[in-house]
């Protein structure tokens, strides 16, 4: 999957040099400060295969940029040149024989570089960062589904992520058969990646685990029904983001008075 629909690699160049349902109050920024007007924020999209994360991440970034604000689109695994190399190894299945603990460590290694090179510098300059998957995917894929010990994963998360947890995580929830069909259609003749190749039961487990994970952090994680059309979902996500981040409530400079 590494090559099939990569976003613009320019997004991943080092910057020049930071289960509730929809709604809810703001929280302390993962980047280290309170979410207030004039600051950016760290938003992640999570969910199973084909739930529309990449589509919605792009749309969210476009809307933020439409306000004249700095927004960085990124993804995991990947999001920096070195982390993209690790992505290729993980999604090819080359790391799978080493077992799920080794895979979890590789995801964490990629995350360390991604945070250092892309996410933290962007947050530090006041940008919004919209990331397609992040630490919740490790909790769900490597933890809930692959059985890696929760204490070990929590330690890895502490080391890799530290205080830079997302301010807002949008969990896209969709019937598994629909998501897999969408992912298949997108892939066309291309080969399924290491995780897409897993059995249907694995994907059902992912859906449940994402919902359970969101329930444990309802302030940060909002579950959104991803079965509607992409425009309607984008509108819902935008309303949630605007409710969470004061900076997104400014008027659109391109809009007619
Ligand atoms: N709301 C929607 N309705 C119908 N099709 C959609 C919708 N959202 C996205 N799609 C299409 O479904 C496919 C998968 O979407 P997308 O790549 O955004 O999902 P994803 O969650 O990022 O997938 P993955 O986790 O497998 O990478 C794409 O072809 C996309 O155009
Ligand atoms: C971050 C992260 C990802 N994964 C898995 C989930 C997906 O199957 C792939 C990424 O592919 P996508 O098309 O970009 O969604 O990697 C994981 O198992 N653990 C993680 O931490």
From TrEMBL:
<dbReference type="InterPro" id="IPR027417">
    <property type="entry name" value="P-loop_NTPase"/>
</dbReference>
<feature type="compositionally biased region" description="Gly residues">
    <location>
        <begin position="21"/>
        <end position="41"/>
    </location>
</feature>
<keyword id="KW-0545">Nucleotide biosynthesis</keyword>
<comment type="similarity">
    <text>Belongs to the thymidylate kinase family.</text>
</comment>
<keyword id="KW-0547">Nucleotide-binding</keyword>
<dbReference type="InterPro" id="IPR039430">
    <property type="entry name" value="Thymidylate_kin-like_dom"/>
</dbReference>
<dbReference type="GO" id="GO:0005829">
    <property type="term" value="C:cytosol"/>
</dbReference>
<keyword id="KW-0067">ATP-binding</keyword>
<feature type="binding site">
    <location>
        <begin position="47"/>
        <end position="54"/>
    </location>
    <ligand>
        <name>ATP</name>
    </ligand>
</feature>
<dbReference type="GO" id="GO:0006233">
    <property type="term" value="P:dTDP biosynthetic process"/>
</dbReference>
<dbReference type="InterPro" id="IPR018094">
    <property type="entry name" value="Thymidylate_kinase"/>
</dbReference>
<dbReference type="Pfam" id="PF02223">
    <property type="entry name" value="Thymidylate_kin"/>
</dbReference>
<dbReference type="GO" id="GO:0006235">
    <property type="term" value="P:dTTP biosynthetic process"/>
</dbReference>
<feature type="compositionally biased region" description="Basic and acidic residues">
    <location>
        <begin position="1"/>
        <end position="11"/>
    </location>
</feature>
<keyword id="KW-0808">Transferase</keyword>
<dbReference type="GO" id="GO:0006227">
    <property type="term" value="P:dUDP biosynthetic process"/>
</dbReference>
<comment type="function">
    <text>Phosphorylation of dTMP to form dTDP in both de novo and salvage pathways of dTTP synthesis.</text>
</comment>
<feature type="region of interest" description="Disordered">
    <location>
        <begin position="1"/>
        <end position="41"/>
    </location>
</feature>
<protein>
    <recommendedName>
        <fullName>Thymidylate kinase</fullName>
        <ecNumber>2.7.4.9</ecNumber>
    </recommendedName>
</protein>
<feature type="domain" description="Thymidylate kinase-like">
    <location>
        <begin position="45"/>
        <end position="233"/>
    </location>
</feature>
<dbReference type="GO" id="GO:0005524">
    <property type="term" value="F:ATP binding"/>
</dbReference>
<dbReference type="GO" id="GO:0004798">
    <property type="term" value="F:dTMP kinase activity"/>
</dbReference>
<keyword id="KW-0418">Kinase</keyword>
<dbReference type="InterPro" id="IPR018095">
    <property type="entry name" value="Thymidylate_kin_CS"/>
</dbReference>
């Amino acid at each position: 999957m590494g090559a099939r629909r990569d976003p613009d690699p320019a997004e991943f160049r080092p910057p020049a040099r930071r289960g509730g349902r929809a709604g809810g109050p703001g929280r302390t920024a993962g980047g280290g400060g309170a979410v207030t007007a004039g600051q950016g924020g760290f938003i992640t999209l999570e969910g199973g295969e084909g739930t529309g994360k990449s589509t919605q991440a792009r749309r969210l970034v476009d809307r933020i940029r439409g306000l004249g604000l700095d927004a960085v689109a990124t993804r995991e695994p990947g999001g920096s040149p070195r982390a993209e190399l690790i992505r290729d190894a993980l999604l090819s299945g080359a790391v799978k024989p080493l077992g799920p603990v080794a895979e979890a460590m590789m995801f964490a290694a990629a995350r360390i570089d991604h945070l250092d090179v892309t996410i933290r510098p962007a947050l530090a300059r006041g940008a919004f960062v919209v990331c397609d998957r992040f630490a919740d995917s490790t909790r769900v894929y490597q933890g809930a589904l692959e059985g890696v010990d929760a204490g070990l994963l929590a330690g890895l998360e502490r080391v890799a992520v530290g205080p830079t947890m997302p301010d807002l995580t949008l969990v896209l929830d969709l019937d598994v058969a629909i998501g897999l069909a969408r992912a298949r259609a997108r892939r066309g003749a291309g080969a399924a990646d290491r995780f897409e190749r897993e059995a249907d039961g694995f994907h059902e487990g992912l859906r449940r685990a994402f919902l359970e994970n969101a329930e444990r952090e309802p302030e940060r994680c909002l579950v959104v029904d991803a079965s509607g059309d992409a425009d309607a979902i984008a509108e819902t996500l935008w309303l949630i983001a605007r409710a969470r981040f004061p900076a997104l409530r400014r008027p659109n400079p391109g809009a007619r008075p």
